Every structure is written in C-alpha cells, then in structure tokens.
Amino acid sequence: MSFNVAIDGPAGAGKSTVARQLARQLGFIYVDTGAMYRAMALHFLRQGIGAAEEERICEAAAGVEVSIAYENGEQQVLLEGENVTGLLRTEEVGNMASLSSTYPKVRKKLVELQQKLAASADVVMDGRDIGTCVLPEADVKVYLTASAACRARRRYEELKEKGTLGTHTLESIQADIEDRDYRDMHREVSPLRQAQDAVLVDSSQMSIDQVIAAIRQLIRR
User: Fold this and answer.
1) SS3 (DSSP) at 119
2) Domains of the chain
3) Helix-strand-coil split of the chain, %, nearest 5
4) With contact defined as beta carbons under 8 Å apart, do 189 and 58 qualify?
5) Per-residue confidence at 170, pLDDT binned at 50, 70, 90?
6) Whole-Å CA distances, 211 to 16, 146, 161, 201, 217
7) Mean pLDDT along residues 159-169
8) Mind listing the pLDDT tens digit for each residue in 190-206?
9) If 0-12 CB within 10 Å is exposed, 13-18 middle and 19+ buried, where does residue 70 land?
10) Strand 123-127 and strand 29-32: pairing?
C-alpha cells in the first residue's frame, strides 16, 4: 500500500517548496500538480489559444502529452518530451493554467495521471483539489495558506531576485493573487476548498522548516 500526503492551498502559500522538501526528507516522490497544469497551459499559449476558447482548449488537451521525469531527485515536467520546467513560473502561464484548469476535459486527463502515480508509489502531492478530488483517501491532508499580502510579498521578492520583476509592483501582484484566489474558489469544477479532514496550516508567520515540522508531526500520528 502506498502512503499519500495531500497538500492543498491557494497560490503563493509555499505548497511546492514545502511539498518538495518534505518528499525529499521522507524519501517519497514529489508530484507538483500545478506544474503539470502549467505545462498544459504553456501548450495552449504556444498554440495561440485564448483562455476563453473552451472547444479549442479541450481539443488541444486531448492530443498533448504531459509527463514527469526525475533528475537528481528533482521533478522535471515534460511537454511532448521537452523539458519545460524552467518555463512554467511566468505570470502569463500561471493565469492561463488557472483559467484553463476549469475545463473538465483538461482536469480529467491530468487527474488520471496523478492518481496513477499515487497508487503506485508513496507521494507528496500538492495542488488546489488534491485532498478533495484527486486523492480523497490520502493518509494525511493539509490545507496550507497565508494572507494575500504575505503571498504577494513573497512573490515580489522571488521575481525581484530572479530579475524578472518587469513592470509588476507589489500592489499588482497582490491584486493578481486575489483575483486568482477568487477564480480558484468559485470555479464550477473542483473549486479550491479545505477538505473536512484536512489540517489547516497558516504559514504567514512560519518558516519553511517550521511548516515541514508541523506536517511531519501529522505523519507520525
């Protein structure tokens, strides 16, 4: 029997960082579902498809291959065999992923891959609907959040450090995060919400190490 840890929460809460380090400490496989949706979104953008073009998006989703590989223990996301991991963190891709993930056919294709991974290996999986939809029987469920202001500040510093801040301001980033939260929480298909049996962890005043320690305590129970 595989052991599954599901970590859900809004954009910028630190899910990916926490899940990646937690998986490494536990010797589990880390599955970044958001990166998979972003890879699909990148494909749509490359095809020149708009986020509102549901029919074209569903047609494109049916024929594209998104897979996961590991190099030195790190997840790499492959789009049609191309490693696109380094292209997935732009605001444009993130917004397309948030919008296109509302379409049932897009979600269905990726959820099938995610469930297959979880059934065959011990995984830490993070996303928006892991504990509620993808892995409803996960052994440990966490809802990781932080205030919008805190998440915006983290994103601002990340973009500034990478030299990709461009015209973004702290205020515009926070507005974008709040808009994305609203879309994710109000979409018809698999909206972002805390599972009834998930433990709430607010990382606003916590370090990454403190968050990981809190989750490991849950795994020991």
Assistant:
1) helix
2) 4-220 (3.40.50.300)
3) 50, 15, 30
4) no
5) very high
6) 12, 12, 23, 7, 10
7) 91
8) 889 999 999 999 999 99
9) exposed
10) parallel
